[in-house]
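Backbone geometry:
***
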Amino acid sequence: MNALQRHFESFFRVEPGRPALGAGLRAALAVGVPMVIAATRHLPAATWVGLAALFVTLVDRGGPYRARALAMGAMTLLGAAMGLVSALHPPAWGAVLLTLVWVTACGFARSYGDTPGLMGVVLANYTVVSLALPASSLAAALTRSGLFMLGGAWAMLLALLLWPLRPYRPARSAISRCYRLLSERAEEVSSWALEGPLPPTTLVDSVDWESRARQCLEDARSVLASTRRVRAGESGRGEHLLVLIEGVDALLALLVALPETLEVAPREGRYHALRAEVQRALASLAADTRAVARALVREGNDTEPSRWSAERVRRALEAQVAEGGMSDAARAAYTHAEALVGRMREYSRALLDVAERLEDGRPVESDLPVGPHPAVLQGRPLLEPLRDNLSPSSVIFRHAMRLGFIAALATALVGGLKLDHGYWVIITVIVVLQPYSGMTFQRGLQRAAGTLLGGALAAGLVVLVRDPAIILGAIMLFFAVAISVKPLSLSAFQVLLAPALVLLAEIQSGDWELAGVRIANTLLGGVLALVGARLLWPSPEHLRFPEQVASALRADREYLLRVVSARSDAEPEVREARRKLGLELLSAEASFQRLLTEWRGPARQLEPVMAMLAYARRFGAAVTALAASRGWHASQDLSAVASYAGGALEDLALAVEHRRKPTPLPPAKTPSMGDALSHAQVDRLIRQLTVLHNATERVAPHLAS
């Protein structure tokens, strides 16, 4: 599959999930109500209220109420300030200079994360619009600034006050999604065949699930931390949610370790009854985690007590042992599986109890097996993220400089050519340019195709009807549907947003031929963005991807060393190393996805790269299985294993960084273990390392090209 085909497929891709109907309705009301007032009361200046409400609504990405209020409030204040500055009709050279400085500064907003980055894009766009439509006097500029603040306040009123204010609702929803993922995995493993080879999708599915679960857990932690930051000192619902997050972390590790154990456990017919009991327990765990997810979302005490027990697995194991003929390896593996099931049952019982206490606020028991472990919320100094990116080696630094320069060039070009509605050229540059080369092309394709389709839709509509009331209704409808489908498809968002913006401009100016102007200006802006991305400090992903993979391999090594030196997988150092590995793997996988957007070679060359990432995660899963048994086998000396695997992982990381083949893996000498389980786990760990080494060998030529 070539790169262009992948970009076209991305245009039609629909993400899983549900449309954001509430956000769509709020957007329609935010823009529509001021526009209706402007039309019916003959107050053209009131259209700035609707425009401001649109811009402020766009930075509302959901999540904790505090974070949303901060983002929308900052957008309102900064938009009013920059609108005042840019509306004062600066000379042509002044407009170019202001665009250069301000758009560059907005590009640096990405240093603080996705939402500030989006706010930077929206602020830059509003400044461009205000520059293109200067005020006639200082009084008019002040009036426009006041109207922007009014529109921002109107959007915040809709988003934060008129809808029910439940401070913990975003955190509860985020944690609920984690428990649904746990339930899906437990149910999937519970349906594995009792004999014969495991399905070929097991590897891919487990890697994909663990990646999604880790991302979901980190998102939930971020949302809860943001919510609790302004509610310090309260020990009710926030503490319950902390325990439930710790429960996700604990069950995530067990749902990695138990499938690993089942994969190495013998699967002959005589073990079917025992294996069936283990998988039945997993099905019961799936029901428990679904119940916790429901309790989090429904906000009611409808959690029913779970009646399953690990005792059935223990009795089946005892019967199997009494029957005789059970090998040491089988006995060790199934004994460990029984212990893991027991821990799962202990955790699920405690978590169901905490979920039941969510509404009445009863305190959390002090002897729960899963926390709480409230971490100290230490925010980073305000300027630290910015300082970290004030270097030419920073992707964000290069992106901000490129963005400001091309936007300023577009401003000069629009002024020199006196293009009608030329600010659409500059807006397209700001929206299309991304920190990564492949993503810039993909966003340009989405923007151009969306504008072409949306412009055609707007042109067709104004041919059929010119009634302002119907046009206003169409604008509100387009905004509502566009914002609703944005979480599912950015392309659909672009297609639906384009006619809304064209019609909004047409109804203000009375010019019903603007669809073609917008299409031409969008294409020009897209060309400028693509040329700028290619010529000015390009950021191809293939130069960064090896560093991301090397960091993940070193995180694998650090995790193994922590596990080997620990006596239990519950030690904070082990849990933090596991979390760091999960984050590094997520970063490497995100880098690979960006690599796909600019890949020009044959698709078959990507297979070893995907295998390397998959087995880097599978190696971590093998370490997690080893960690889960440290409580029973902490006396086992694994220093030789740590030295062998740790050295090999460091060599793999260096090989990837320097784009060379790794040193041949020396023959593995599995140390003698005191029990069959440890021997089986170490043997599996070394096998995963061998496969990872082979994948890295096959990747090396492609990284060097």
User: Anything to note?
Assistant: The first helix runs from residue 3 to 11. Confidence is low (pLDDT under 50) at residues 230-235, 372-378.
